[in-house]
Amino acid sequence: MPTVLVLNGPNLGRLGSREPDVYGSADLDALRESLAADLPDGWALDLRQTDDEGTLISWLHEAVDTGSPVILNPAAFTHYSYGLRDAAALVTKPGGTLIEVHISNPHARETFRHTSVISGVASGVIAGFGFDSYRLALLHIVSGS
Ligand code: DQA
């Protein structure tokens, strides 16, 4: 069964209590439930979170090996992790799908958030729509477009 990997970077495990004015008051379990409700038959979803850069990179390697499409919220790694960018490129250069998502709109926030080192190797970017950023990414993947 094809599995969509939904990978979340540092501090996203604190969703629910972390800056609710920016990120809302729902946590990752609520995100998992919401995405599962949108999942068509024949698809599986694997949502993970880590604060560790190496772990996130190893999950992208796993996506390369399994050919799984990826929805990635790199969180703060977005703005400076060349290691994560290179791992994302391993997914997309051979034709795999990796959609970068953000809950907030980083471009409307502090200047350091305006740079993404991931976007240049992502299949696409969706930002600023809360958890709907993930839902829109999932819709794109399962629609096969
Ligand atoms: C974020 C935006 C990043 O700038 C920030 O570091 C995050 C979350 C978002 O989803 O809006 O941790 O990726």
UniProtKB/TrEMBL annotation:
InterPro entries: DHquinase_II, DHquinase_II_CS, DHquinase_II_sf. Its EC number is 4.2.1.10. Keywords: Amino-acid biosynthesis, Aromatic amino acid biosynthesis, Lyase. It catalyses: 3-dehydroquinate = 3-dehydroshikimate + H2O. The keyword Transmembrane helix does not apply. GO terms for biological process: amino acid biosynthetic process; aromatic amino acid family biosynthetic process; chorismate biosynthetic process; quinate catabolic process. Pathway: Metabolic intermediate biosynthesis; chorismate biosynthesis; chorismate from D-erythrose 4-phosphate and phosphoenolpyruvate: step 3/7. Substrate binds at residues 73, 79, 86, 103-104, 113. The keyword Ion transport does not apply. SUPFAM superfamilies: Type II 3-dehydroquinate dehydratase. The record marks 18 as: Transition state stabilizer. One of its GO terms (molecular function) is 3-dehydroquinate dehydratase activity. Pfam families: DHquinase_II (PF01220). The active site is at residues 23, 102. Belongs to the type-II 3-dehydroquinase family. Homododecamer. Catalyzes a trans-dehydration via an enolate intermediate. This is 3-dehydroquinate dehydratase. It comes from Labedella endophytica.
